[in-house]
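Tokens help. Consider this.
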Amino acid sequence: MKIKLFILLPLLLIAIISAGCSALRNKPRLTSNSELLPADVLELPNVSEMTIKDMEPGVWVQLNPDAIADKKTLTEAKGETYLLGVGDELEITLYGEGDAETRRILPIDPSGNITYMLLGTIPAAGRTIDDLTADMRQRLSAKLNYSILSVIPARFSSQTFTVLGQMYKPQVYPLQGRTYILDAIARGGGPKVGVIRDVSADIHDYAHATLVRGGEVIPVDFERLVYKADASQNIEIRSGDIITIPSALDRKIYALGAFNNPQGIQFASSQTTLMNAIVQAGGINREIGDGHVLIIRGKMASPKVMLMDMSQFDSKKARVFKILGGRALDVTLQAGDIVYAVPKKFSFFRDVIKQAVNMFGTTITRDAATDIWQQKVDPFNFGNNRPQ
């Protein structure tokens, strides 16, 4: 009797699953997803207080810049005094007895020191100019009865910023004096312009341009800054900032986060859907992902976002047939969309958004830097078959 039950139970389970799948297949197909995908975009003023569970799946939500980062903290002027660093150059003038004058320009060497006559090697990196000047004057007082020492900066080279992407001169630049985003773009030669059938055309994408500072994306609306001359977006550059202007011709969907194979996916056609992207990214890693996916679309400063519950793709629940059968929502994607599989470690919606946008910013920055390296090292893209 036990043997018969052992044989009958699997058969019974198969029959139940088949009946359920058949019932799903026999239901009428959706002709429109309008009830699942409202046309209106909802405002979300208190995003920091909401959790993933509080969000309604399948609804577009418009975010404001404060949801991306604390812009006030990241953009407010620094109060600390400038500290000297390796590569900075100092103009040192010494007036001694008999009105003799000696003027020299000394760089701070890789060890962080300067070497000056009579005084030998003096630590300079990490100090203020006032601190270094006071130290040098004290040392000189033991050597000369009368001297006047002047130390002024000749060139700042230790602090830099980087311009990448569709610029005529993408590279690292020294941060000399107060520099703003438009200044940085101008020093990078401005955005590239392509020629299509003898007509010039923009090939840069300001909507997805990013300013990365310390691993975080600063919510800057480059379109408003450049096209509408919005001075509020022209924030001051700090040392280490990276500006990336991506290409408008590089049409990709970025599948990031808790996927088995996160990657940039080439946008093939207007029929590319969320399910296509998930499959190409190797599916959600069930060990680190919580089953939710975000679709982030539009400007990086204020994107709109849709949360999707991907448990409907779980074949163990036989719900995948709703998608395949056209009875559940499968969102059509656009070039530039970010598809982010939410890791389990996040609970609040704001934290997820910040992580997704920051990951996108570092991804396009890495890709732009790789392109520059590729052009210099392997301009013809031979790869491993490059001739010696």
